[in-house]
Predict the 3D structure of the following.
Amino acid sequence: MLGGTNLPRVGGYNQAVVLDAIRTRGPISRVELAALSGLTNQTVSNVVRKLLDAGLVTETGQAPSSGGKRRTLLAPRPDGAYALGVHLDPDAAVIVLVNLAGEVLTSRRLRLSVPSEPADVVDRVARAALRLAERSAVDPGRLLGLGIAAPGPIDGSSGAVVSPPNLPGWDRVPLLKMFAEATDMPVALDNDATAAAIGERWIGGEARAGSFLFIYLGTGIGAGIVLNNTVLHGDSGNAGEFGHLAVEPGDRVCHCGGTGCLGPYCSPAAIIDDLLRLHGRAAADRIGLTGDPASLHGDWKVLRRAARTGDEDACDVVRSAARRIGQAARGAVSLLDVSRVVLGGEGLRGIEPIVREEIDTAVNSTSVARAIRPIAIEQSVIGDTVGAVGAASLVLHGNYTPGWRMLTDPSG
Amino acid sequence: MLGGTNLPRVGGYNQAVVLDAIRTRGPISRVELAALSGLTNQTVSNVVRKLLDAGLVTETGQAPSSGGKRRTLLAPRPDGAYALGVHLDPDAAVIVLVNLAGEVLTSRRLRLSVPSEPADVVDRVARAALRLAERSAVDPGRLLGLGIAAPGPIDGSSGAVVSPPNLPGWDRVPLLKMFAEATDMPVALDNDATAAAIGERWIGGEARAGSFLFIYLGTGIGAGIVLNNTVLHGDSGNAGEFGHLAVEPGDRVCHCGGTGCLGPYCSPAAIIDDLLRLHGRAAADRIGLTGDPASLHGDWKVLRRAARTGDEDACDVVRSAARRIGQAARGAVSLLDVSRVVLGGEGLRGIEPIVREEIDTAVNSTSVARAIRPIAIEQSVIGDTVGAVGAASLVLHGNYTPGWRMLTDPSG
DNA sequence: TCAGCTAAATCCAATTGATGGATGAAGTCA
DNA sequence: TGACTTCATCCATCAATTGGATTTAGCTGA
């Protein structure tokens, strides 16, 4: 049920609106903020004073006069707030410390052994994160919390990961609670693709305002959906399951049991398999693939590099996977009517041009929306660390975004 | 850019929240409203008084005591507000007059000749609508406006229909403006599927609270998306394009140019064609199909009736179309993470069981969400007139729903 | 150089709507 | 009949926005 509102909440909301506008529209004056938000000059003045007092924005110089008193420009203060972000992946955890401007201050990569024990992983990661914050000497009072981006399905209500296909043995692990206890900080948890989308929205400024579909290529494929500046979480907290969109069916059975799913055609393992099947052992040897499932991560890296340097066979298998991704993207775009698709994730490194091109072709040559305006296909503005930065953004976003309540441990 | 808020708006918002709660939760007491909305008893009391004064709700009896004073129950007052709704279709326009409770007071069906002249159609429909309102003797001051549900793409910013595939010659017709001038009332315009979804949300009460996907079978196929009690319009006002989701590809080229689209496999014309192709002229004769494209509407009706009465060939072609719809629905459901799919539209009459069954199979046997909870597949609570009632709901919804601005003619 | 003008930002009184605590109203139960 | 509950409202207070007046700061032209 939709909740009612009261005055303090209105105040907080308007503060969030103004801060968001200052963050995304760069240095901006009070009058412009008033015009943008529809609030009175007076109100903007009041709100800005509070933000100044809170240390979240600063006055940075003045704009040239337009006939009268010059406007004083306001900009976000990077050291106004900080957040820690963790991206959990089967073989490594990436931890970052991010400031209000979205800049990564320090980062650390923790190799994880597969399979790994949840309690052990949480313990190691939490300690590493706390150490990172300590050494960076940020004001502890301005460290807002820890965000976690986890692969696979999440139970939104309990804050647990639900048997992610890539983390064997992690069934119903209450990550939210575990990290809250280990760090004694507010903790936010989300699906990696959704976290990445929030990160783009938070860091991307005007280029990521409004609505977009974020396609995330990590160990699997997923999507984050931002509609009208708000992330879609879905009834069970799992919106954006991209791997189960229907595409041209083949013989492969998805782990969900279906045969028409996108998922089994564009995972690293599947693409490597394609190469071996279609182009033979010789091609694999030339490229340098071991073909050993245990060294999947390395093989995938090698294959991507081969594709980037133009190896025909590598390009071929990547392209046919990308074509299917394009089909799915076309459907998603026309269903959601977004005019922007953003690509990201470390699994994309090296093959962006191919994937971008295929999605562009699929989306812009046939979609109905094309008649109205072309759909932009762009790369993440954050880059390789979207997952971790996105996780940190969960916290910042949760604290400073209008109309958004953080998915956090009630006890914390 | 996200707008700021002010006190009058808060007041309006809370009034809308409370009215919405009274509408959806049937007869309900003030205390329950307070608990539901998170507002104070005091505030609810104030808000309710305003709603009573405005004539939008009434006190209807009292609940049995639970140990103290009995709660007085509040219910929406059907005669509190009215709206006209028009569903434009290639061969007919359905006009309804709806009250605040969502009851259809009067309705009228206007046969349209194909092809038809936009100006002429608007003129006839507008006059019929006005006459309907006049004869029903509703208080003109409580008639809030006219809603239009039009097939095919809409240009949200200009309020025009953009070359709907089923209305030849209707390219960029500014329906919003034309109807506003013809009726001198506030006018709202939306895609038929989206309008139908809003209608379900408005009429359906608790059964349609939260999020759902509405699959609309009219002359074509479309979907309306409701997420967290809010309709998704999309960047260009065309969210829910369901016909361009990818499914098992065949040889048919969609009017968008693609080959993997759902659309060309589940239109009435396509299904009739299937029957002729797969089961021959003999089957068509047995069922009673003319096969003449000019009598498409009639043929489609006949075919549906045959399917309902169990004709094997008819069931076969309907089922294979339904199977594809199921594939698309599965993708949409996992992407949006909704836990309810609603079916409606007059093109569904007679074949609901088959379509329902196929979607159920596709969605609930393979979706990931299934692991968490089954997805409900239900029929429209409104029935055949969803289109028109939905159109009327556009107006009611626009006036009385929290956080929603009506897509209306700025001049009106 | 100074008065006149313009635009930005702030001060002040008024208004609106929610809140918490106290009070009245209506019933139940022993 | 009296004690207790629950519902609903009254009253003073508080928080936030608004509109108009005022101050601050820079531009312009005689």
